[in-house]
Automatic annotation (TrEMBL):
Pfam families listed in its UniProt record: DUF4160
Domain of life: Bacteria
Name of this protein: DUF4160 domain-containing protein
InterPro entries associated with the record: DUF4160
Amino acid sequence: MSTLQRFDSSRVVMYLDDHPPPHVHVKLRDGRDCTVDLDNFEIKGRVAEREIREALAWIKTNRADLQHQWQRNRA
């Protein structure tokens, strides 16, 4: 597991040998988490989009680098 970015209420994590499709995990301080698909930004998990707004904006801004990291870790 690699923490890519920290925020006040969450952090963005990528697991090195995770399953497809390309995605990151967003872990909230209260223990809940979700995944965000890097292709379409679909959120899976019991987390509302408003709760991860800051993390989601960062993911969208850094999408190309995140996809590159995903491919590099899968090789």
